[in-house]
Structures are given as structure tokens and as C-alpha cells.
Specification:
Rossmann fold; 5-stranded mixed sheet; alpha/beta; binds 5-phosphoarabinonic acid
């Protein structure tokens, strides 16, 4: 097997109250309509993410900028949040050494890359206090160009760089990724003469992992962009059909949608058995939640688990809790490394340990994955299985594109626009009102008016 495979048999088990044999045929017209709807928006130029794998110019520009930064700096700090951070982080943690940032430069062969992501001052100050500023540059990544958390971090670093290295030192340390024409950051790039890569206007935040948003940090960390994009392109090519049995992303979206709508399985768990895909789980959670959670009656809840770790945590809930989940297992067929398990003679009397003799840690985690999937199915719990031949750049490109396209199609099946996020605006307006942004006084007053509390319900 040299490409990603998807197996949805675990959603058709009669024992797991699975889908009926004709469920896919019954869904076919709606699936074809979801596919056509997406393709029409894509052709109109409104949705550009599926075309990113063929954007060689952006890949080249990202790689060139990363090379230039790597020649002068040791550390890249990525300032971004949500879709402007999670994709790059997922790519890097899947494809670099698990302790990449701790390796000496000669073993790392690339920059250290940090994703503070949140605007928690404790983390941010600690990171700046840990890195040698002289050896550090930063990429401010925001599609809209005005996200408060990201711009707060940018402003702090800008001021510290100017104080220490002057305007020119700041300019050499700061690069931007933002909308090609709109937004405050684009205007700042022009006014301050900063180097800036564009995020195509047709590519939204959580679908931007394969634009400069993800490619610049990935290149800085030494990822093979050509292979990453080739994998994504190969998956995109496999998904050019409106038939469920031909298009893996459509099949995945269709099965999860049916499990939700027909069987009440509305919690969708992504459970890779590979630490390198832990951050991909976080990325998927944002993608699925922000894209599909649009109405009180529409919004499958994504959940990230990691095998075997979660077998000692949330698996109990998945095995015996409410019948409301579908668990997608992700297997990496050939792990990057394996380690044999030595059992000394003195441990042989202990049956619960001795059987490990002659096995490897790779065999252990694979046996655990197979066993857990089988046990879930026996317990009447539906599963999906995704297999990657290896955790390499090509497979990662396939996986990202599979999940992005599945999300787009799922939006069509649920009848929601997967590409906006109006629900997060109210909170942003309140926060800006509290911080005194002119024009947001009404939001502030509304928030303060609602802020009455019943003292009887406060214990402290
Ligand atoms: O998917 C989205 O559009 C959002 O989650 C954004 O990625 C997030 O809000 C950050 O936005 P921006 O890139 O504009 O700073």
C-alpha cells in the first residue's frame, strides 16, 4: 500500500446498529449535490483551498523565505491563532523529529519553530525569556490582518526588536503572511517595508494549511514541501467524483453524516495511533467544529484522542458510555522507528510482563490499535479506519486534503456554509468593547448590562 486508505466497514456492522446495506445508495443524490455544490463554488473562484497543491509559486516563495531566515536565525516564532497556527503546527509535529526544537542544529538541519498560539501572557513571556532574541525571527500570520491575539504578540515583539536592534533589525526579523490586499497587516507590511507572503483571498483560515500559512513554518522546520503538496494533489485528484464509492473524502463525510443523522452518533473522534498526529487531531477539531457547528440542530462534535494514551483515559467512555460516537482510527503502517522490548530472565515468572518478550514497541502499539478497534466493534460502537503507509510528507498531504475536502462536502450534506464562522463574532465584539475600541461601546454596554450575578450562586 503506497497511499492513504479509508475503510468504513465499521459503520456498517449490524451488531453496532450500523448503517443499512442500501444507506450509501440512498445518500447518493445528496452526496452528488454536495460535491457539485462545492465544485461550483470552487470553479467560481470562491473556494481556493483544493487548488493550493498546484500553487508551486507559493511553495517556492515560502521555501525561499524560509531559507533566507534560516541562514540568519536559529528560531522562528509563529504568531498566529486558529487556522493561522494549527495547520503549520500539525505539519511540523507530524514530519519532524518529535524533539526537533531540542536537537542541536547539526542534527536538526533546520530552524527551531515555536507556535505560542494562545495569547496567554505567561506562555508568551516565558517563550521570549527562553529564546535568545538575537537568534530569533518571527512570522506574523493572520489572514484577516487584525486578529487581536496575534497582533498583540506582534506588537510586543516589534517593540522589543526595535528597542534592541533598531528599525532595520526589526524589519529583518519580521515576516508576514496575510491577505494579498486587505486588512491592517497588509497596510502595515507596505508602510514598514516588511516581507509578506499572501494567503489567497479564496482560502479561509482553517483551510489554509497548504498555503504560505502552513508552508512557511513547514519549510523553516525542514519539511519537504514538494512531497507534501504532491500528496495533497494526489488526494485531490482521487476526489474528483461525485460518487460516494469513488471519492474517499465524500465517503468519509457521507458516512459520518449518516451516523449522526440516522443513528445519533454525533461525536466524531479522530484517534491516531501516532504521537506525530496528535496536533493533526487538534487541527481537525477546529476544522470540523468551526465549519459545521452552525445551527442548534447541526454540529457534529469533534473530539481528539491519541492511541494508546487514550486507552487509559477517554476509551472507557467510548466503549461503554452513550451510543453517540464514531471513532476514526488512524494507523501508520510503517512507523519511523521501532524498539525491541528486552525481558530479563528475572521478570519471566510475571506472566503479565513475560509475554512482551520478543516483541517490539511497534508491535505493541499496533496490537493495541487492532484490539481496541475490535473491542469497540464488539461493544456495538462504529469505527472508521484510515491507514497511512508511512508518516511522511506525502501521506500528510493526503491526510490534510482528505479531511479538508470531507469537511467541505459535509457542509453541503448538512446544508450549512462550511466556510464562515459568524458565531465567534459576538465574543470578539464584546472583548473589543471591553478594551475600549471606538465604535464598540454598544457591545461593551450590552455585556456589562448582562453581567449581573446572583450572589447566592457564587461561593468564594
Ligand atoms: O478558520 C478561521 O477562519 C479562523 O479560525 C481563523 O483561522 C482564526 O480566527 C484566525 O484568523 P486570522 O488568520 O484572520 O488571524
Amino acid at each position: 500500500m503506497d497511499r492513504l486508505s479509508l475503510d468504513v466497514n465499521g459503520c456498517f456492522d449490524a451488531a453496532a446498529d450500523g448503517l443499512g446495506a442500501n444507506a450509501l445508495d440512498a445518500l447518493a443524490p445528496a452526496a452528488a449535490a454536495a460535491f457539485d455544490g462545492f465544485e461550483a463554488r470552487r470553479r467560481s473562484g470562491e473556494l481556493g483551498f483544493a487548488d493550493l497543491p498546484r500553487d508551486a509559486a507559493t511553495a517556492d516563495a515560502s521555501a525561499a523565505l524560509a531559507r533566507d531566515l534560516a541562514a540568519r536565525f536559529e528560531n522562528l516564532v509563529v504568531l498566529g491563532i486558529g487556522g493561522s497556527s494549527l495547520g503549520g503546527r500539525a505539519i511540523l509535529s507530524a514530519l519532524t523529529h518529535p524533539f526537533h526544537n531540542l536537537l542541536p542544529r547539526d542534527r536538526r538541519g533546520a530552524m527551531r519553530v515555536f507556535f505560542p498560539d494562545n495569547s496567554d501572557p505567561a506562555t508568551f513571556e516565558a517563550l521570549l525569556g527562553t529564546l535568545e532574541l538575537e537568534e530569533t525571527c518571527f512570522a506574523t500570520i493572520t489572514k484577516s490582518g487584525g486578529t487581536a491575539e496575534t497582533m498583540a504578540q506582534h506588537l510586543v515583539l516589534r517593540e522589543r526588536c526595535i528597542a534592541r536592534f533598531g528599525e532595520e533589525g526589526y524589519r529583518s526579523r519580521c515576516v508576514l503572511v496575510t491577505d494579498p490586499a486587505k486588512g491592517a497587516l497588509r497596510a502595515i507590511a507596505d508602510a514598514e517595508g516588511l516581507r509578506a507572503l499572501p494567503v489567497p483571498a479564496s482560502v479561509g483560515g482553517r483551510f489554509s494549511a497548504l498555503s504560505a500559512v502552513g508552508l512557511l513554518p513547514a519549510a523553516a522546520g525542514g519539511v519537504d514541501l514538494t512531497a507534501l503538496l504532491a500528496g495533497a494533489a494526489a488526494m485531490e485528484a482521487r476526489c474528483r467524483s461525485g460518487a460516494l464509492r469513488e471519492n474517499p473524502a465524500l465517503l468519509y463525510a457521507g458516512v459520518l453524516h449518516l451516523m449522526d443523522r440516522q443513528k445519533g452518533r454525533r461525536i466524531h473522534v479522530l484517534m491516531p495511533y501516532a504521537d506525530g498526529l496528535r496536533d493533526t487531531g487538534d487541527w481537525f477539531v477546529q476544522l470540523w467544529a468551526e465549519s459545521l457547528g452552525k445551527r442548534p440542530e447541526v454540529g457534529p462534535t469533534p473530539f481528539r484522542a491519541v492511541g494508546a494514551t487514550d486507552q487509559h483515559s477517554s476509551m472507557q467512555l467510548m466503549m461503554e458510555g452513550p451510543h453517540d460516537k464514531v471513532v476514526t482510527f488512524v494507523r501508520v503502517v510503517q512507523p519511523r522507528a521501532d524498539v525491541s522490548i528486552p525481558v530479563p530472565d528475572t521478570y519471566r515468572p510475571h506472566g503479565e510482563i513475560a509475554y512482551l518478550d520478543g516483541h517490539t514497541m511497534g508491535e505493541l502499539i499496533e496490537a493495541e490499535r487492532r484490539a481496541t478497534e475490535a473491542a469497540l466493534r464488539k461493544a456495538g460502537r462504529p469505527t472508521v479506519s484510515i491507514q497511512l503507509p508511512r508518516l511522511d510528507a506525502r501521506a500528510m498531504g493526503e491526510l490534510l486534503m482528505l479531511l479538508e475536502l470531507a469537511t467541505a462536502y459535509a457542509g453541503g450534506l448538512y446544508g450549512v456554509n462550511a466556510f464562515d464562522q459568524p458565531g465567534v463574532e459576538a465574543g470578539k465584539r464584546y472583548a473589543q468593547g471591553l478594551l475600549g475600541r471606538p465604535g464598540y461601546e454598544q457591545a461593551r454596554d450590552e455585556l456589562l448590562a448582562r453581567a449581573h450575578t446572583d450572589p447566592a450562586l457564587v461561593l468564594g
